[in-house]
UniProtKB/TrEMBL annotation:
The chain crosses the membrane at residues 12-30, 46-65, 77-98. It comes from marine metagenome. This is Sulfatase-modifying factor enzyme-like domain-containing protein. GO terms for molecular function: formylglycine-generating oxidase activity. The keyword Transmembrane helix applies. Residues 240-412 form the Sulfatase-modifying factor enzyme-like domain. The keyword Iron does not apply. Pfam families: FGE-sulfatase (PF03781). Keywords: Membrane, Transmembrane, Transmembrane helix.
Length: 412
């Protein structure tokens, strides 16, 4: 039997050739998708590896089929050198095709990194867009990590920092504070040392099995000046819908109050969200305005000493019913159950706090939780429209320790 005829009758060759043909077509489709970033490089490589890894399957199936066919016709199975050479040629062509695609992609990415991305990176730095510049820099780093222009750019937009946790072994993630993207960048497991951190206000997330997940707003300046060790309480130790506010030496970072002495605060828990209309309505329905245990024994209201009954007459809505002044007929506006309660006095807020077995924060506690030094990042994501409130937490303004709406929405 001639060489060509042997090849035609070989199931192993037919199956393998068909499979490699399908692979070649698949690569021709995947290549432009990768170039246009429709699929990322990692996924492209995985798909190529899977295609290559699948090559022995049709070869083995075809080989077994050939052996079975030869046995059926009673023909002795001999080693065929010509068929082997054909397989080698076939695999060589396939390998060269993959290599050509890889070299083409590598060349195109190098050109993109040096000719397009690096100039764009420096333009973003000049425009003060550090977050965008850092993101682009990370993309370039995958292609030309040692490039001198990239190294100089990173020095302008980032800083090397250390991050610690108690206990150690926590996974650390980072994202830009003002980014709408929910994807976090993995930084490593604590202790994380000498890690590059962008010059932008960022949201850190620390996770460890058996401990509460911690989310904290921070900046490389704070991390570099000692605020880089984070306490992770055991799971179940933080009350529901509250966050841990770590204690420490605290100054009032507010104009007009910054002359007051620094004091040491113990750690405490604070609500994540403002008290909602629905929550306050429950307080009213449970007799909160009638229970004297929630109220002070002496009312000094605008310089006037009032009895309990006289004081209650001050805390009414627009229809003279006990409740927030912004309500009517004892109810909050329709559709605003999860909006923050407003139109209440300090006395009413304090009574509600006692009702839920909590207390109002002192000015120092509030200042500590608000972390006003980070207001430049928080205020743009907070509700300051001056027209109406929004559902609690919906504006997105979250403080360094995870409290929403410390800025804007309703005044404390």
């Amino acid at each position: 039997m001639g060489f060509v005829e042997e090849i035609k009758q070989s199931k192993a060759f037919k199956f393998t050739a068909s499979y490699l043909g399908i692979c070649f077509v698949a690569l021709q489709v995947l290549d432009p998708l990768s170039e246009r970033n429709i699929i990322n490089d990692d996924l492209f490589k995985i798909l190529v590896y899977l295609l290559v890894a699948g090559t022995p399957i049709p070869l083995v199936i075809g080989f077994l089929s050939d052996r079975y066919r030869r046995k059926l016709i009673g023909k002795k199975t001999n080693f065929n050198f010509n068929v082997v050479l054909s397989f080698i040629a076939l695999f060589t062509i396939f390998y060269l095709s993959i290599t050509n695609i890889g070299l083409k992609q590598s060349s195109e990415k190098l050109n993109w990194a040096r000719q397009d991305a690096i100039p764009r990176l420096y333009q973003l730095i000049q425009e003060g867009k550090s977050a965008d510049a850092y993101k682009l820099g990370k993309e370039i780093e995958f292609i030309i990590p040692e490039d001198s222009m990239l190294v100089r750019a990173f020095a302008k937009i980032s800083r090397k920092v250390d991050i610690f946790s108690e206990p150690i072994g926590a996974d650390v993630y980072r994202k830009d504070y003002n980014s709408d993207d929910s994807t976090f960048e993995y930084l490593g497991s604590t202790p994380v040392k000498d890690i590059r951190f962008p010059y932008v206000y960022s949201l850190l997330k620390l996770e460890k099995e058996g401990f509460e997940t911690i989310k904290i707003g921070t900046h490389p300046y704070y991390l570099k000046t000692g605020e880089n060790k984070f306490l992770m309480p055991p799971s179940g130790t933080i009350p529901e819908d509250m966050v841990l506010i770590p204690g420490g030496a605290t100054l009032l970072n507010m104009p007009g109050l910054d002359h007051l002495d620094r004091i040491d605060l113990p750690s405490c828990f604070m609500d994540i969200y403002e008290v909602t209309n629905a929550e306050y309505k429950k307080f009213i329905d449970d007799g909160g305005y009638q229970n004297k245990e929630y109220w002070p024994s002496d009312f000094n209201y605008n310089g006037e000493n009032l009895s309990f009954n006289d004081a209650m007459k001050k805390f009414v809505d627009g229809t003279n019913i006990l409740g927030p002044s912004t309500w009517e007929a004892g109810y909050y506006p329709d559709g605003q159950a999860d909006y923050p309660v407003s139109g209440i006095s300090w006395f009413e807020a304090n009574a509600y706090a006692k009702y839920v077995n909590k207390s109002l924060p002192s000015l120092y506690h509030w200042n500590r939780a608000a972390d006003t030094r980070s207001s430049g990042a928080i205020i743009p994501k907070s509700n300051f429209n001056g027209k109406n409130t929004l559902a609690v937490g919906s504006a997105g303004g979250v403080s360094s320790f995870g409290n929403y709406d410390m800025a804007g929405n309703v005044r404390e």
